[in-house]
Amino acid sequence: MTYLIDRRLQGKNKSAINRERFLRRYKSQIKDAVGRAIKGRSITDIENGEKVSIPVKDVNEPHFGHAHGGIWETINPGNTEYQKGDQFNRPRGGGGGSGRGKAGNSDQTTEDDFIFELTREEFMNYFFEDLELPNMVKTQLTAAVEFRNQRAGYNISGTPSNIHVLRSLRGALGRRIAVGGKPRKELIEAEHELLELREQGVPEEDPRVMELKKLTHHLRTRLLAIPFIDPFDLRYTNRIKVPKPSTQAVMFCIMDVSGSMDEQRKDTAKRFFILLYLFLKRVYEKIEVVFIRHHTAAAEVSEDEFFHSRESGGTVVSSALQLLTKVIEERYRNGDWNAYVAQASDGDNWDNDSVLCKQLLVNTIMPMVQYYTYVEITDGPPQNLWEQYTEVRDHHTNFAMQKIVTPADIYPVFRELFKKQAK
Amino acid sequence: MNAMPKDPPHPRALPEQSEWTFDLIEQAHDEIKRVAANFGLDTYPNQLEIISAEQMIDAYTSVGMPVSYNHWSFGKHFLTTEKSYRRGQMGLAYEIVINSNPCIAYLMEENSLTMQALVIAHAAYGHNSFFKGNYLFRTWTDADAIVDYMVFAKNYIAECEQRYGIDEVELLLDSCHALQNYGVDRYKRPAKLTLAQENLRQKERAEYLQSQVNELWRTLPKKAEAQADVRASRFPPEPEENLLYFIEKYAPLLEPWQREIVRITRKISQYFYPQRQTQVMNEGWATFWHYTILQQLYQEGIVGDGFMLEFLQSHTNVIFQPPATAPYYNGINPYALGFAMMSDIRRMCENPTDEDRDWFPGIAGADWKKTLDFAMRNFKDESFIAQYLSPKLIRDFHFFAVLDDDRSDKLTISAIHDESGYRYVRQQLADQYNLGNREPNIQVWSVNTRDDRALTLRHTQYNRRPLNQQANEVLKHVARLWGFDVRLETVDPQGAVVSTLECRREKRNRAA
To answer: How many CB atoms lie within 10 A of CB A252?
Structure first.
């Protein structure tokens, strides 16, 4: 007896658990690799898989075996020149085939690294891990394009729950008028004539009167037979799925690059920017990112320069805010740009500059932007900039600020932002 | 469907198309089955399964079994296979076949109709009849029970993971895998059990085992007799070659569930042991039969020229043997050697030369089907080559023997394919396939039952070959299983200890 079974439709991810076990075992190495990848990548390029490599000796499964040494006598095919008793030098590096036993070959294939690909989801999971995002937010960020149900006119078929009563009855009315038009007209004429004949005193037995009576009766029955509502009249509300409103947004990354911002703080800041970018990417189809860095003066720079060049000197935050205002007004004023600002700093600022910052924010910037987020990457006590910003926060719901030490502290800054979106 | 342009098409001829359909596979299978039966192939019933490429990678990962327990190393295997497949470095094997009853053979959906027919002939009739007939498989594997046993193993290990934690089980499996090649009973016959019996037995065994171990490691002083047998305290009385068996039975600190997992890995290893010993024969047999069966179909007119051209192209690829001087030479191709030997036996039966009559008086001119069947049933690679490799094949392959002795500066050609070398080459080649020579010979030598409970393993050197670098790592795994110090002595054939490796274990550290 023979069976022919089609297994193709059965699950193909039988090894998913084994793969997960592997990732679990090498979690720390993978996390390091993901961390390196985040440093090396552009903010806008965060959502791809990643190639991860682990030293081969770590993933090796040891077995007893022979090493080269002692006596090996091997049989090989393809002799062209040798005679019994010929002697020749050992080939270097084990190459050349001859003189290498089978058992020797298994040890031969040494690679430096075991390399494999993380999928996009896995990569994002490792990225989110440090940030301690609530699960709902994680799903929001990883989900593919979202759709919204939107009404799109009426349809002649659908489910009963979608029947549009008004439309259906209006249609029925129209049909009744249309179908009954001719008999109704004839009925009116016939009744009119009958009335006239009766007024003239024509007796009821007159053939014309009899005929008219019969006709009106017939026409009335016909009109009554027109159904009040017919399946033909039913109209259903039509809903279609459309991608969520896709407008454009501009995201400003502002970072203090004075001497006190070291590599680690910049790395934390980068995660903060990436998170905002990911969020915006879900909501807007087109996003532009503008990088502004500042010490005592501000400049608009490329992403690479933004993260990797170092400057030193004092800090004047208002210079960046002024540049921000200028850029928004020049480039993103017309059209429907939604402006989002993410600012990262270690909290240092020129003493009397902080008041100026607050004024700039309250008077000019806050009315122009959707959301303003500020993180202070420090574990020291708050300074004057923090105090001034606190006042801004108290008056504007779309202003969020947070003091952070590790990447895990970033999320609360966005809490309001995600909450708004969660409906 | 194309009409056959040839003279009188056979009424049951397969259409000349590369797309397969279920009907066509059934049709091809019926023809192959008929021809195979005429040749006298005795097989388990077949179960052909159509699978996709991803499923093929899955099947690779779990060593070809339809179910297997979960372990990170399978995930690693999966990632490697997937990577090289995606990059196009490697085609997937055309077939995987499982030694079970019914015999499960996988057909990949990407294959053309010709390839499906080739796989059916190769796996479902070639390998299948080998599994059913060869003495090693008959003695050591139980085709009826293996799938059930894998289900039992998977469930049991999953249950252990729930109860004792994934990490704990993973560590244990790591150690067992390191010793898997040393978990084989070479002489004992495993009992046939079904899933239900296995479950029942397992419970009884666990209880019994634990009681025995407790007896062995009893610390309460025995009375008078204890003093008497100090001399006879050697344990085990005989060296034990099955390390996993020994650990399962006697490791002092293992819990019953840990012993059961050791047993599971040992059983699986035992199941694959015949396959490792019959590579050349098994592939040679299957290749010989797919070739013979499809040739027969061609002669009958069931398959056409296009079919044969496609088939011959993959067939010749499979049996290609690059010479040792080629840059991509990677040892002897078992398909090439096996196919050549099987075909050569048929040739010697049908058209023997004087040389054949001289060397193989028993088979020259005999019935080829009976001769091949006998060879398939009663040999493994080593003995098969020693018995049947003919001078003609040694010449055809241009075999030569290279002697690499680390005490001399140069390599020596010790024999070539000439009159004086035939027997030598044949013996060397047979030895090369002897698993006992290929793997280091390591056995349990003694246990210090009276003092520190240290376990001593002995590696008896073969041709002065040293152990590889990983031996230290493996020894750590042995120590983890044993729970106390482990020593590995390397001895020369005269019994003198050459070198010693040692793995010390913290006392009272029970973490397995």
So the answer is: 26
Q: How far apart are CA B283 and CA B127, in angstroms?
A: 7
In chain A, what's the furthest Cα-to-Cα distance?
147
Tell me: the pLDDT tens digits for A340-387?
888 888 888 887 888 888 888 888 888 888 888 888 888 778 777 888
Q: Which residues of B touch A116 (CB under 8 A)?
A: 79-80, 83
CA distance B276 to A238: 66
Neighbour tally for A185: CB within 10 Å: 11
Which candidate in A1, A5, A15, A21 is best for mutational testing of the B interface (most B CBs within 10 A)? A15
B10 touches chain A (CB under 8 A): no
State the Cα torsion A402-A406-A411-A413 to the nearest 10°. 10
Sign of the CA dihedral running B216, B217, B222, B227? positive
∠ CA B281-B434-B99, nearest 5°, is 40
B87 touches chain A (CB under 8 A): no
Question: Percentage of chain B with pLDDT > 70?
Answer: 90
Asked if residue A276 lies in contact with residue A340, where contact means CB atoms within 8 angstroms, the answer is yes
Give the pLDDT of residue A33.
82
DSSP calls for A291-356? EEEESSSEEEE-HHHHHH----S---HHHHHHHHHHHHHHHSSSS-EEEEEEEEE-S---TTHHHH
In this structure, what are the phi and psi dihedrals at residue A287, rounded to the nearest 5 degrees?
-130, 130
Instruction: Show the tokens assigned to B457.
Output: 């393993």
Tell me the two tokens of residue A80.
């062209």
Angle at B272 between CA B266 and CA B275, to 5 degrees: 155
Whole-number Å distance between alpha carbons of B401 and B433: 14
What pTM did the predictor assign?
0.71
* Residues from chain A contacting residue B244 (CB–CB below 8 Å): none
**Cα maximum dimension of chain B:** 96
- Cα B462 from chain centre: 22
